[in-house]
Amino acid sequence: MIFHRLFAEQALLPDGWARNVLFEVDADGFVSAVTADSPGQSPGEGAERVAGPVVPGMANLHSHAFQRVMAGLAEQAAHPDDSFWTWRELMYRFVGRLDPPQIEAIATQLYVELLKAGYTAVGEFHYLHHAPDGAAYADRAETGKRLLAAARTAGLGITLLPVLYGYGGFGGQPLGEGQRRFRNDPEGILEIVARLQAAASGDPQVRIGLAPHSLRAVTPGSLSEALEGVNALDPAAPLHIHVAEQTKEVEECLAWCGRRPVAWLLGEVAVDSRWCLVHATHMESSETGALARSGAVAGLCPTTEANLGDGLFDGPRFWTAGGAWGIGSDSHVSQSPIEELRLLEYGQRLRDRRRNVLRGTAPGVGAELFRGALAGGAQALGRPLGRLAPGSRADLLVLDPETPALIGLEGDPLLDALVFAGNVNPVRDVAVGGRWVVRQGRHTAEAQALRGFAEARRALLA
Ligand code: ZN
Question: What percent of the residues of the chain are helix, what percent strand, and what percent coil, each to the nearest 5?
Answer without folding.
Answer: 40, 20, 40
